[in-house]
Amino acid sequence: MRPSDDFQAPGLDLFHFPPLWPGAPYWLTKPILMAGVGIILICALLWAAFARPALVPRGLQNIAEMGYLFVREHAARPFLGKDADRWMGLLLSIFLLTWIWNLMGVIPLVQLPVTSFLAFPAVMALTVYVIKIYVGVRKWGAGAYVSNLIPRGLPKLAYVLLIPLELLQNFVTSLFTHMLRLAANMFAGHLLLAFFSAVGFWFLFERPTPLGVPVGVLGVVMAIVMTGFEMFIQFLQAYLFVLLTAMFIGDSLDPEH
Q1: 232: containing domain
Q2: Briefly, what is this protein's role (predicted)?
């Protein structure tokens, strides 16, 4: 059997996209297009839901309010308390946009989770990072803001290690963990779905053999199962991303909360 006839598992080429058409700017690729579509879709849905709100919500307004209540009760209020409603515009937008970008990985013909490209979670995480520092410094002042990050009441010797670790965690690692958690999960999920789909296509259609057909059937079954599981992970990662956003902002506004 020639090497070209061997099954080739999907690799990093899944995440390489040329410009949309010859001569287009190098940055104008499918991920950029899908990111823009996601933004427009969220704006359109929220406008349609709340442009003329009814006292008794129905249809799209009812669905949008369910999303609003979910973010408020399970992300905003636990960390922002009485300030939760002030931040709901930002938190709801981040949650819905992250979720839509994630879901694009299982939408037929699109099949591309925008958040698997690190640049997109990085922009959102960096925005949250700037906001949390800004609101903390604005409320407490720079010195008190940094001081609030250090727990009180510990033995003095403990602060030799604790202070550098707390500063590192709040000013460096929190930013990277915020964006990497989302990007890594979407990246891995996309690869898994592509792998099982490729197995099914190869052994059932491309190179069917008596021994290969059962493997192909298993690949199709696993692709279906993993699609359902990935949809759950996509929702969960959107929730965790907005949960961390609320936690970071809440810690800046009220370190004792």
Answers
A1: 19-253
A2: Key component of the proton channel; it plays a direct role in the translocation of protons across the membrane.
